[in-house]
Design a protein that fits this description.
The protein is of the alpha/beta class and 144 residues long. The chain has six helices and five strands; from the N terminus they run E-H-E-H-H-E-H-E-H-H-E. It has helices spanning 11-25, 43-48, 52-76, 90-101, 115-121, 124-131; strands at 2-6, 31-38, 81-87, 105-109, 136-139. A five-stranded parallel β-sheet has the order 3-2-1-4-5, with helices on both faces. Strand 1, helix 1 (11-25) and strand 2 (31-38) form a beta-alpha-beta unit.
Length: 144
Amino acid sequence: MKILVPVDGSEAALHAVRHAVHLHRNGLQASFVLVTVQEPTYVYEMLLAPDAEALERVTGAVGALALEGALAMFVAAAISVEREIGSGDPAQTLIEMVGRHGCDAIIIGARGRGALRSALLGSVSQAVLHAAVVPVTIVKHVAT
């Protein structure tokens, strides 16, 4: 079994990672693909960037930062993970990543960054839930 775990650097995403690590520690035989998706580049960003390579470097740096905390959790638990940084519409890109990596399931946080955007357009986790052809576990953060 291979499980896609999308993160955006938010606490909600880290709860999903903790859940994935917990499942693995309790006997789930699975490998994990840790991914993040950066929003599409806007025209003004393309005009201000010196070249396409510069945009890719910035996207990669921001993506690496979003993966950092989640990756540290997998490493601390001695779980190896594949990683990918994508760009585009988050929900659609995550669905494409599931297919590209041959994933059997998704574990995603209930709410990440962009609460205003979620209120206006619907949350990424909800869009993934509706579009996915594999089981989706949405990990809700419960304040203690």
